[in-house]
Design a protein that fits this description.
It contains ten helices and no strands. The protein has about 200 residues and is mainly alpha-helical. Helix 1 (about 15-25) runs parallel beside helix 3 (about 55-60) and helix 2 crosses helix 7. It has helices spanning about 15-25, 30-50, 55-60, 70-80, 90-110, 115-120, 130-140, 150-160, 160-180, 185-195. Helices cover about 65% and strands about 0% of the residues.
C-alpha cells in the first residue's frame, strides 16, 4: 500500500519518493529500514482506525529524521531556540522527537500540526494525543523488526484497541526505564498517569 501511495500535496510539497530521498539522506541504512517498517505499520493502523493514511505515512517517514544528528547540534539547538531547557538533562532518545519536529518543520517545510505533534510525541507520548500521534507512537513500538518480550501481545492489542495499545506500550516502556535506573522524562509520567494508571 505505501509503495504505491500518491501524496495529495496537501501537507507537503514533495512526493513520497522525494520525501524518502530527503529522509534517507539523514540516516544510516539500518535506521531508514526501521523508518520504512514504521511507515508500513502506521499506514495499516491508520486505515484500521480511520486516521488520515497520508498523514500517517508522512509522520512515520519523518519520525526519526533527527535520530542520528550529533549531540552537539541538538544541544546547540535546545540552547538557542525556545525549547524547555530541562531537555538538556536528557539524551537523544528524547531530543530526536522534540527537536526533530522542529527540524522537520524548518528543513522539510512540513507545518501540519498533527504530523509535527506525532513526531514530537513518538517516544514519550502525552496525556493528550491525537489519533495520529497514537498511531505513530504504537507503530514505532510494534514495527515488524521489533523483537522483545511482549511484542506479540502489543501487536495483537494494536489491532483490537489503539488506546489499550498506547497503555501497554507506556507501561512497559516505563518498567524498562525504571528497571535500568534511567531518568524518566516528565511527559512519560504524564502519559502513564493518563493512559495506564487506574483512578
Amino acid at each position: 500500500m505505501t509503495q504505491t501511495m500518491t501524496y495529495s500535496k496537501t501537507y507537503i510539497t514533495y512526493s513520497r519518493e522525494e520525501l524518502i530521498e530527503k529522509v534517507s539522506s539523514q540516516m544510516s541504512k539500518k535506521r531508514f529500514e526501521h523508518v520504512l517498517r514504521v511507515e508500513k505499520k502506521a499506514c495499516f493502523l491508520a486505515d484500521l482506525y480511520q486516521v488520515d493514511v497520508e498523514k500517517a505515512s508522512i509522520a512515520a517517514l519523518t519520525h526519526d529524521y533527527a535520530k542520528e544528528r550529533p549531540d552537539e547540534e541538538m544541544i546547540s539547538l535546545i540552547k538557542a531556540r525556545n525549547f524547555n531547557q530541562e531537555l538538556l538533562e536528557y539524551g537523544y532518545a528524547i531530543w530526536h522527537g522534540v527537536v526533530g519536529a522542529h527540524l522537520v518543520k524548518e528543513e522539510l517545510e512540513i507545518s501540519d500540526k498533527d504530523i509535527l505533534e506525532a513526531i514530537e510525541l513518538h517516544t514519550t507520548g502525552a496525556a493528550k494525543m491525537s489519533e495520529l500521534a497514537k498511531v505513530i507512537y504504537v507503530a514505532d513500538y510494534i514495527e515488524d523488526g521489533r523483537n522483545f518480550n511482549g511484542v506479540e501481545e502489543a501487536r495483537k492489542l494494536a489491532e483490537e484497541n489503539l488506546d489499550k495499545a498506547v497503555a501497554f506500550e507506556t507501561k512497559h516502556t516505563l518498567l524498562y526505564l525504571i528497571g535500568k535506573g534511567f531518568k524518566v522524562y516528565p511527559k512519560t509520567i504524564e502519559t502513564y498517569n493518563r493512559w495506564v494508571a487506574q483512578n
